[in-house]
Amino acid sequence: MWDFAQDVRLGELAAKVYENGGTIAAVCHGPSALLSAKLSDGSHLLTGRNVAGFSNDEEVAAGHAGYMPYFLETSLKEIGANYSKAPLWQEHVQVSGRLVTGQNPASAYGVAEQAVRVAAQTL
């Protein structure tokens, strides 16, 4: 959370993989690495896409408020992602084209399962 969003190299890598037909998957705080991902037309990779990630409510419930440099849910919404979430600690996976994201650790298996399914469809 402290360095992923500001690491332009991660964003460039994700955008390049996506624009070359690859599947992108991230879970929990992982979508923070996609906050700097801009496509070749200058738009954010996540803008207009259905996305999940660690929720503001989960940050507060985990006692992270005041320690985290930003809330992922808020940042995803600010760049125009269609953020959605489940109740605290429940599995929640979003598939938006070749982008697969999950809300929290409970979502890891579902994200992996969907990422494999999506990737297999592009072969």
Features:
123 residues, alpha/beta, Rossmann fold, three-stranded mixed beta sheet, 5 strands
How large is the share of residues in beta strands? 5-15%
Radius of gyration: 14 Å
Unreliable parts: none
Structural class label: alpha/beta
What overall geometry do the principal axes of the alpha carbons give?
globular
CATH C-level class: Alpha Beta
CATH topology: Rossmann fold
The order of strands across the largest sheet is 1-5-4
| DSSP summary, beta strand count | 5
| Annotation field: number of helices | 4
CATH architecture: 3-Layer(aba) Sandwich
Helix content range: 25-40%
Distance N to C terminus: 33 Å
Give an account of the 3D structure.
The protein has 123 residues and is an alpha/beta fold. The protein has a single domain, classed as 3-Layer(aba) Sandwich (Rossmann fold), CATH 3.40.50. It is built from four helices and five strands. A three-stranded mixed β-sheet has the order 1-5-4. Strands 2-3 form a two-stranded parallel sheet. Strand 4 and strand 5 form a beta hairpin.
